[in-house]
Amino acid sequence: xxxxxxxxxxxxxxxxxxxxxxxxxxxxxxxxxxxxxxxxxxxxxxxxxxxxxxxxxxxxxxxxxxxxxxxxxxxxxxxxxxxxxxxxxxxxxxxxxxxxxxxxxxxxxxxxxxxxxxxxxxxxxxxxxxxxxxxxxxxxxxxxxxxxxxxxxxxxxxxxxxxxxxxxxxxxxxxxxxxxxxxxxxxxxxxxxxxxxxxxxxxxxxxxxxxxxxxxxxxxxxxxxxxxxxxxxxxxxxxxxxxxxxxxxxxxxxxxxxxxxxxxxxxxxxxxxxxxxxxxxxxxxxxxxxxxxxxxxxxxxxxxxxxxxxxxxxxxxxxxxxxxxxxxxxxxxxxxxxxxxxxxxxxxxxxxxxxxxxxxxxxxxxxxxxxxxxxxxxxxxxxxxxxxxxxxxxxxxxxxxxxxxxxxxxxxxxxxxxxxxxxxxxxxxxxxxxxxxxxxxxxxxxxxxxxxxxxxxxxxxxxxxxxxxxxxxxxxxxxxxxxxxxxxxxxxxxxxxxxxxxxxxxxxxxxxxxxxxxxxxxxxxxxxxxxxxxxxxxxxxxxxxxxxxxxxxxxxxxxxxxxxxxxxxxxxxxxxxxxxxxxxxxxxxxxxxxxxxxxxxxxxxxxxxxxxxxxxxxxxxxxxxxxxxxxxxxxxxxxxxxxxxxxxxxxxxxxxxxxxxxxxxxxxxxxxxxxxxxxxxxxxxxxxxxxxxxxxxxxxxxxxxxxxxxxxxxxxxxxxxxxxxxxxxxxxxxxxxxx
Length: 739
Fold this sequence. Notes:
The chain is an all-beta fold. Helices cover about 0% and strands about 70% of the residues.
């Protein structure tokens, strides 16, 4: 039966598809530390996955879909003669009926998920989740649209001993955009969550909306936009048995993001100093490093945070993650949780992070959505009050010896969002309520003053307010005025500049004024030659004092010959802080790229940043960061690819780090149905005299469309004066057959 799908053939029925997948992995992990103590670990796993899906149009615009997924993973591990066995099984059937047209849409659906696991002969209760959904949409021409969604979930173990949750959620939205320039949005939700084990019930009602108007006047010389958004939330927890906890998402103004170290700005962003950038959604932040790679000498850390309208009481954060395009199970995340490092910092101004907290971290579902599928890490820490909070995570590298759950990619675990909660502790036999209200009023305008030099004036104003049962009314203001210009002087030179003034007042009536200014000159004397000179500065005035920053940067780019390009940049900046400290920084960067022919590429780069700090009650200090790198690739034949590189990293307060790497890849049958390749790489790091060697062949056979066989063997050996010797051998095989 398994061989039959290997033979080409036509589809057996319209709208029926699926696949079979088998994955086998085996690895040995031998280590010997510098004292001579040895350890040996052997892992093996076998995954079976079966998928079937049906799509059938049973009436025009009425579609029925059904299918399911079954997978089973058996794993065996032996560490220093001690064996362990585990097995996990997952079954996920579904059925949907949907109606779709331009005026009316709707549908109903059902999904079930069963998960069971055994470890060393001991079984855990099977976890079951049933989900029922219904939706209705109405889109009449010239009238407001309306949509309604209903979800009911039952989440329990088969014996109703560890989990027994029931939840219902109604969500409705309405939008109107048919009047030019006017936009009206309204949404609401009502949820009811019941924990039968704790005998507690949580209800939540949320209403939010926005009204906005945009327009332009006098042939678009004046552009105007204004709007007001509001949100009201009321939550209640009633505990009839044991005391329960109500997790209510807190009202947040902005999500914040940055990576460190960031040497593109002076002074560079660090964990303890530096403002994070406000974003609508986080970029694809990977919490792990790829396996089988040598980590860089200095790791960039993920900094993600939240800002509030006023100082807020905090004790719990939730980081939602995805892998392989979906939310992993909490059991899978628990298996890998020990590889991560988390720190929490708070700040009063969003720049200086002086309060460090060590959180307790557990893998969890989103506590504000019981029975949902959103999973991640729950960070709990001592209750604190702050207006800004951030989480610092150093990307982890999961060892090759680790058994990786089927729903996780060991080289890609992505952070999707950060959420904070207000915790209300219910009392047995009593009920408690929590409510909050928030709003944001915003307005902006742009006026073209002189078209000849593109001189314009822009204005923006933002007022936000919030109030909850745990905090009094807090109001913040931000107003900005700016003048900008951009002008082409001739075919070679262009100029631009801007002067702006920002005024802000926080919830404690603390006032901050900022004046920023910049000017730039661009020159392109030849299509292959360009120069850019930029001057900028900023003055910040507040009750804490005045700080001033000025900088000038000069960048040059030249394509000297075909296949030969050069980039050179230099900059100088000076900073005077509110405490009387003064910092002078000089930076220099250069890079040369050479492509003498289609088979060879060469690259050389150098970066240097030096800073001198005096005053401010601190001893004078000079710091520097320097790095240089050389890289080359060579393809002597279509099937052979050679790569090599050398880099050195220097910093004033740590030893120099050098890294040498080289490798070869051979693919004799590239482009065909049978693809064979083998690779060899070697990396030498001065830190600990570490040498890492990786090599192994891989094979892929594209049997037919959607069906393939992949085989690979990999060996990695690491020798270091610090950690001793590590030798890892791994083999994997994957067969996927499309039905």
